[in-house]
Amino acid sequence: MKIKVINPNTTASMTQKIAETAIAVASSGTEIIACNPEMGPVSIEGHYDEALSVIGILEEIKKGEAAGIDGYVIACFGDPGLLAARELAKGPVVGIAEAAMHAASFISTGFSIVTTLSRTRIIAQHLVANYGMTHFCRRIRAIDLPVLELEDENSNARKTIFNECRQALAEDGAGAIVLGCGGMADLSAQLSQDLGVPVIDGVSVAVKFVEALVSLGLNTSKKGDLAYPIAKPYTGMLHAFAFVNQMPSD
Ligand code: 5HY
Questions:
Q1: What are the tens digits of pLDDT across the range 54-70?
Q2: How far is ligand 1, taken at its centre, from the CA of residue 250, in Å?
Q3: How far is the CA of 230 from the centre of ligand 1 (A)?
Q4: Contacts by 218-224 with C-beta closer than 8 Å and gap 24+?
Q5: For the segment 83-101, what is each residue's pLDDT rounded down to a tens digit?
Q6: How many angstroms separate the alpha carbon of residue 214 from the centre of ligand 1?
Q7: Among 68, 141, 148, 164, which residue has the least CB neighbours within 10 Å?
Q8: 3-state SS assignment for residue 35
Q9: In the β-sheet with 176-180, what is the strand arrangement from edge to edge?
Q10: Which residues contact 244 (CB under 8 A, 6 or more apart)?
């Protein structure tokens, strides 16, 4: 099977890190195609960045459909454009926030999320509610470092994340930690070992969930709101995004 892992920001080093994490957990027989859009924000740190990252994500889904991709991972903790991507895709599309939260709920009765900037906590909070995880999510914490600090080997991001996780375990009554950024994908194994609790990275979990869904033949339902978009003209600079209906819809 072919799984396309999309890093919605345009920072190639973060895409490479996400690719390595995905390839490390993929089953034999699973081909991982990791990419980031050609256009968009170098990092996603708020609603505006997120909104504008969606165009690039949908462009990558469109290319994936033409290339026979079986399933997709959206590797940004805001799960940007998830439902729009599902409208375009035949196969399953899984967001790393959704995947990580569900995995945490299988192995703990409470988890805390550790993300980057405080201003993005509200985005995670909305997803916690959307995904029915309010019962499990103990707290959403931020290390208040910009996303791209994670790309700087010399920054103290790792130490700061470790300290925030340790505090979460001491104060929040959490049994597991969910890492709140695709750029933290490479940290989960070491943090789990150092902290002695499950520290969950959504990229790894999302790849395994997509593998499971595809192997079960579970594709995105085309009945109702996730049916292919209704074909209509788009004007201005988005005219090329007008959906051309090649598939039957309900
Ligand atoms: C992410 N931003 O996963 C989010 C994390 C965040 O560029 N990749 C980003 O802080 O919202």
A1: 999 999 999 999 999 99
A2: 35
A3: 30
A4: 218/92, 219/90, 219/91, 219/92, 220/86, 220/89, 220/90, 220/91, 220/92, 220/93, 222/90, 222/247, 222/248, 222/249, 222/250, 223/250, 224/250
A5: 999 999 999 999 999 999 9
A6: 26
A7: 68
A8: strand
A9: 137-142, 111-115, 176-180, 199-200
A10: 231
* pTM for this prediction: 0.97
The tokens for 101 are: 């939260």
For 178-211, give the secondary structure using H, E and C.
Answer: EEECHHHHHHHHHHHHHHCCCEECHHHHHHHHHH
Each residue of 191-206: pLDDT tens digit? Answer: 999 999 999 999 999 9
First to last CA, the chain: 27
Q: Which residues contact 18 (CB under 8 A, 6 or more apart)?
A: 5, 7, 34, 75, 182, 183, 185, 203
Q: What is the rounded distance in angstroms from the CA atom of residue 231 to the CA atom of residue 244? A: 6
